[in-house]
Amino acid sequence: xxxxxxxxxxxxxxxxxxxxxxxxxxxxxxxxxxxxxxxxxxxxxxxxxxxxxxxxxxxxxxxxxxxxxxxxxxxxxxxxxxxxxxxxxxxxxxxxxxxxxxxxxxxxxxxxxxxxxxxxxxxxxxxxxxxxxxxxxxxxxxxxxxxxxxxxxxxxxxxxxxxxxxxxxxxxxxxxxxxxxxxxxxxxxxxxxxxxxxxxxxxxxxxxxxxxxxxxxxxxxxxxxxxxxxxxxxxxxxxxxxxxxxxxxxxxxxxxxxxxxxxxxxxxxxxxxxxxxxxxxxxxxxxxxxxxxxxxxxxxxxxxxxxxxxxxxxxxxxxxxxxxxxxxxxxxxxxxxxxxxxxxxxxxxxxxxxxxxxxxxxxxxxxxxxxxxxxxxxxxxxxxxxxxxxxxxxxxxxxxxxxxxxxxxxxxxxxxxxxxxxxxxxxxxxxxxxxxxxxxxxxxxxxxxxxxxxxxxxxxxxxxxx
Length: 466
Ligand code: FCB
Fold this sequence. Notes:
By secondary structure, the chain is α/β, with parallel strands linked by helices. It is built from 16 helices and 13 strands. It has helices at about 1-15, 35-40, 50-60, 75-90, 100-105, 115-130, 145-150, 155-170, 185-190, 205-230, 250-270, 275-285, 295-300, 350-365, 390-410, 450-465, and strands spanning about 30-35, 95, 130-140, 180-185, 235-240, 245, 305-310, 315, 335, 370-375, 415-420, 440, 445-450.
């Protein structure tokens, strides 16, 4: 008996004391993420109508070198190969988004069976390879027809989104368990309607606050419709960033935290807007768009909060500084340059920020499970022969997984990690210049080459840890 115990202990000790080795909880979900407009291509096939990103990317000056998602990674035609690739990496989960204008070309009414058919085949292919599909319903490709009717600044778009969610669930709900309503509503509202860096390219702070509210309302209405239809797990994905105020103060960090983080967390998870955010919104077009009952509609029980984490935000006080374009209300706040190493996006590399964020979320919003729906980095990858030696990405991912593990050890209810991204893809206003994939894409030939990070990640998945 003593011997047996000793043996068991030795075995356990060996796995956990390999220098730096870390094991994640049983059932931890490992996967990768993409989004429709960034990879699918086939922009005009099988009845798909334009989205705001088609229109925006085709207008000169919006996207680097005039790149568009017309072809992207041609995933629409190559999805079966891409699923095989995922299976080869041992991925347990794949997060993809459904293109609304493929399914409902004008955003409402008529359903395009051929468009739905694509996702039907994709889901079947994933399941045949033992990969769990994680569906995101909105990753920024609003049907252009709905933008023409006012876009997210118009209240009706929220109701149309719930209808669309029900349609997609009607076709895939027998096989898909986890449904994410929105990806990063802050980006959709404030880069899309305020700074104009993203589609639809509007520059109107009042429209952005309305868009933010209608995105939240759309989330709530869709969540309610999905729940009524029997969806097993419902999620909302936010881009969240811990604030670091570099001059020792707090109030500037609080302003930006309100706009970026709490503006979305509080309504969705607590059923109320933070007072400081309401005060800013009131100064930018008023609060007339927030109607009685909206907060109850937004505050639906959800199962998972999807966390997209890339970096912390560094700020300091700078009286007289004008508001940063995507942050109306941030007058007097300076966005400081990152103090240390950055990625090819110029984004700070700060794994500790992920631990801080996850621990804060589980403290402030304890009733919802957490899943990292995006984390990753762009670097200037070079294809050498048949390989991409992206040591910088391996180090980035390793550091962030250690931070995620530390957060779990500190009590965060973190259930999975989906790396951004499976493939190099159309990085919005940067076009194809920024490569986030763990798999390299040669856009001339559409050849896929797993980078060293993909092979490293395969081992992480296999070991359920580092
Ligand atoms: C996130 C987006 C995703 C990708 C990464 C780099 O904001 O959700 O589509 O562009 O950034």
